[in-house]
């Protein structure tokens, strides 16, 4: 509290044209400029990373090395041929997959799943 009071009293005795004030404003302005550049960089890099992640997850091979893709594709094809929901766990995802199998292709389904998984992380 004492430091704050002394600092306040000291700043009240200075004019706007004082050398210390000019130096402080130059340093603070430099940090503000750097902060703005970093903020812009993070926004651009974050957007690029979001698009890259969506493309990578949405367009990867259906029957490649990813086991989740195989099981999701198998379940999607089961529902596409009018299979009924038998799962006891994750029932909302099964209902979503059943609905998507009636209206979407498997590629669009995987892009939509990638969007549902990834976009909330970037918000």
Number of helices: 5
What integer is the average pLDDT? 79
The H/E string reads HHHHH
Strand proportion: under 5%
Poorly predicted runs are none
The geometry reads as rod-shaped
Strand count, sense and barrel status of the largest sheet are: none
Oligomer classification:
single chain
Radius of gyration: 28 Å
Please report the distance between the alpha carbons of the first and last residues.
Answer: 39 Å
- Range of helix content: over 70%
Number of strands: 0
Give an overview in words.
The protein has 123 residues and is mainly α. The chain has a domain at 59-122. 77% of the residues lie in helices and 0% in strands. It is built from 5 helices and no strands. It has helices at residues 2-12, 19-58, 67-80, 91-103, 106-122. α3 packs across α4. It is rod-shaped and about 80 Å long. The two termini are 39 Å apart. The relative contact order is 0.09. The mean pLDDT is 79.
Concise description?
With 123 residues, the protein is mostly helical.
Key attributes of the depicted protein:
123 residues; mainly alpha
Topology:
Blueprint: H1 2-12, H2 19-58, H3 67-80, H4 91-103, H5 106-122
Helix pairs in contact: 2-5, 3-4
